[in-house]
UniProtKB/TrEMBL annotation:
<dbReference type="InterPro" id="IPR044564">
    <property type="entry name" value="Na_chnl_inactivation_gate"/>
</dbReference>
<keyword id="KW-1133">Transmembrane helix</keyword>
<protein>
    <recommendedName>
        <fullName>Ion transport domain-containing protein</fullName>
    </recommendedName>
</protein>
<dbReference type="GO" id="GO:0001518">
    <property type="term" value="C:voltage-gated sodium channel complex"/>
</dbReference>
<feature type="transmembrane region" description="Helical">
    <location>
        <begin position="91"/>
        <end position="114"/>
    </location>
</feature>
<dbReference type="InterPro" id="IPR043203">
    <property type="entry name" value="VGCC_Ca_Na"/>
</dbReference>
<dbReference type="GO" id="GO:0086010">
    <property type="term" value="P:membrane depolarization during action potential"/>
</dbReference>
<dbReference type="GO" id="GO:0019228">
    <property type="term" value="P:neuronal action potential"/>
</dbReference>
<dbReference type="GO" id="GO:0005248">
    <property type="term" value="F:voltage-gated sodium channel activity"/>
</dbReference>
<feature type="domain" description="Ion transport">
    <location>
        <begin position="1"/>
        <end position="123"/>
    </location>
</feature>
<dbReference type="InterPro" id="IPR027359">
    <property type="entry name" value="Volt_channel_dom_sf"/>
</dbReference>
<dbReference type="InterPro" id="IPR005821">
    <property type="entry name" value="Ion_trans_dom"/>
</dbReference>
<feature type="transmembrane region" description="Helical">
    <location>
        <begin position="175"/>
        <end position="192"/>
    </location>
</feature>
<dbReference type="Pfam" id="PF00520">
    <property type="entry name" value="Ion_trans"/>
</dbReference>
<keyword id="KW-0812">Transmembrane</keyword>
<keyword id="KW-0472">Membrane</keyword>
Length: 213
């Protein structure tokens, strides 16, 4: 989504010392090149999927995220000089991402703790196994296996032949794999979109998305 919103919009016209030129003086890339100024792109941007991941990683870890958000809020359109608070609605994108990104980072941290806890628990379990007889081990393993099993409600297939065929198709493992492949292909096609792509490439992506839908 960040690529769709901000690709090519973090570029600006600057003086030789790197200071941004006012929009009252330079309005776009053409004027910038005409007056021999420098049309510069931000080091962290959303021009393609990889740079967008890097930008969002900075935002999620709160490292330099203020400047990234500032660039997004000041951005206008492609090849146009940015100016202060040109697109204040872009604040919403970063606020929403920070809320969910923080939860993701927290869950990742908790996941590492739980994983380490399970490893230690497994080591303790191995120590307990050494103190058990063979019969006790079999009983212990059977009880553990029983605890991991979850009851599943059986769904009766329809009696109509056509409906029964459709039911068998959608409940089969092959259908699940097929759906997962379609979702994966759709995700790949969406991630390939980037700034300054050719019309042919855009058309191919559009057709691919329509087929996936």
């Amino acid at each position: 989504m960040g690529v769709h919103l901000f690709a090519g919009k973090f570029q600006k016209c600057v003086y030789d010392n790197g200071t941004i030129i006012s929009v009252d003086i330079i309005k776009n890339k053409t004027q910038c090149n005409l007056y021999n100024y420098t049309w510069k792109n931000e080091r962290i941007n959303f021009d393609h999927i990889l740079s967008a991941y890097l930008a969002l990683f900075h935002v999620a870890t709160f490292k330099g995220w203020i400047q990234i958000m500032r660039n997004a809020v000041d951005s206008t359109t492609i090849d146009q000089q940015p100016y202060r608070d040109a697109s204040t609605h872009n604040y919403a994108y970063f606020i929403i991402f920070i809320i969910f990104g923080s939860f993701f980072t927290l869950n990742l941290f908790i996941g590492v703790i739980i994983d380490n806890f399970n490893m230690q628990k497994k080591k303790v379990g191995e120590t307990v196994d050494l103190l058990m007889t063979e019969k006790q081990k079999r009983l212990y393993l059977a009880m553990k296996k029983y605890q991991t099993k979850q009851p599943r409600s059986a769904i009766e297939p329809p009696k109509n032949a056509i409906l029964k065929f459709c039911f068998n198709v959608v409940t089969s493992q092959k259908f699940d794999i097929f759906i997962m492949i379609i979702i994966l292909l759709n995700m790949i096609s969406m991630s390939l979109e980037h700034y300054n792509q050719s019309k042919y490439f855009t058309q191919v992506l559009s057709i691919t998305n329509q087929v996936n839908i």
